[in-house]
Each structure stands twice: as C-alpha cells, then as structure tokens.
Design goal:
The chain has about 160 residues and is mainly alpha-helical. It has eight helices and two strands; from the N terminus they run ααααβαβααα. It has a two-stranded antiparallel ribbon with strand order 1-2. The relative contact order is 0.21.
C-alpha cells in the first residue's frame, strides 16, 4: 500500500461517533485509536519500538494515558486495552494471540491484564511499519490523525507531544 492509502485509512478509523458522549475537543469521536497510534509513533521516534511487534507494555500504556489525561475531561476514564484490541477492525493491525481461544460475541470490555494474558502483542502491515520508521512519513501520518480527530485548539498540544 502507498502512503496515500494509509493516510486514508488513518483518516477513517472505526471510532464511536457520538455528540453526547464525546466532546468537541475530539470532534465528537472516541479518541482511543488515534491516541494509541500517536503513542506508538512517539515510542518509535524515541527508539523504544524498533521492530514490527507492539507489546501492550507499561511504556505504551503510560504514553497512551498521558494523551488521555491531557485531552479528556477530569474523571473520564478508559484503557489502552480498548484500542489495542479493537483496532483489528481497521485492516492494518494484527493481534498475536498467545493461544487459541474464542472471544465471546458480547465481549466489549478488555482490560490491560486480559490483553496481556491472551495476546503477546500486535503487528502492523509491514509497509505501514516501514512508513512509521521514516520520520517524514511518520510526521505526515501523525498530522493526519491530529487534524482528523482533534479540534484546532488541542492540535498544537498534540503536535508538541511528538
């Protein structure tokens, strides 16, 4: 896939769209997946992720929580486990199970503990990971996430986080 195709995928992530649940700061959309992708980009830029294998590590959770706590209203809580698990629906994220198991149809509330018990991590499409390893294309993909999922008044903060 080309960079343009991944830019399109990043601008069309499967996210909850609900004006009553999500604020204007997140363009009335759930920010979980964009926060996870931004967190992964940060860890790649810092040299903490160097291979196409993303673990639900403490560093990733901490980085994700940093975004969540900075942008979301005080008292609104969530978990990095949600996007880590559910990003599989976006076509470029591939979970690596530790063993064979069936996920119940009604399963909607993964936790980081559950995630670590059942998955060793995830891989991205090889082409996407290569694009994220390049600082220029990583910044282009980062900008797409920020401009698509966040209001203009919070965009500078997110750009400075890189």
């Amino acid at each position: 896939m080309s960079v343009d195709e991944y830019l399109e995928k990043f601008s069309r992530l499967n996210t909850d769209k609900n004006r009553h649940h999500w604020s204007e700061a997140t363009c009335h959309r759930a920010p979980h997946k964009p926060f996870l992708l931004l967190s992964i980009m940060d860890l790649i830029a810092q040299g903490q992720i160097t291979e196409n294998f993303i673990e639900p590590s403490f560093e990733l959770v901490d980085t994700w929580n940093g975004y969540w706590n900075a942008i979301m209203p005080i008292g609104k809580r969530s978990s990095m486990a949600y996007p880590f698990f559910f990003m599989k629906s976006d076509g470029f994220w591939h979970l690596i199970a530790k063993r064979d198991f069936n996920i119940p149809d009604q399963f909607r509330t993964p936790s980081v503990v559950w995630l670590r018990q059942n998955f060793s991590g995830a891989r991205m499409d090889e082409r996407l990971f290569a694009l994220l390893m390049d600082p220029v294309t990583r910044e282009l993909l980062r900008s797409t996430l920020i401009q698509t999922y966040f209001a203009a008044d919070v965009q500078p903060f997110l750009e400075d986080q890189a």
